[in-house]
Amino acid sequence: MRKANDKTMKQAIEQMLNVYKIKRRFDETGIIAAWPDIVGKPVANRTSEIFINNKKLFLRIESSVVKNELMIIRSQIMEKINSEAGDTLVEEIIFL
Predict the structure, then answer these.
(1) Is residue 18 a contact partner of residue 87, using CB atoms and an 8 Å limit?
(2) CA–CA gap between residue 96 and residue 60 (Å, rounded)
(3) Is residue 73 within 8 Å of residue 60, measured between CB atoms?
(4) pTM to 2 decimals?
């Protein structure tokens, strides 16, 4: 029998992440883990460093050709990341 204040596991985890103020970091880690799904395996294999800091996505790409391609479609990448996260996690992409 369910009580009135029972929560699903998903609701309880989201509440815990919000209480401890780690939801943003959790989402950022999820996006980094999903990087191959977002841009594809060939691009992900040429990405040597990726991290998010202050709503900026920092990327180190080994191939200059891939880097130029990503610069052209950076707004599409940001849209894809933010839609997958369900929040605005990235406002700018910086290539190292």
Answers:
(1) no
(2) 5
(3) no
(4) 0.80
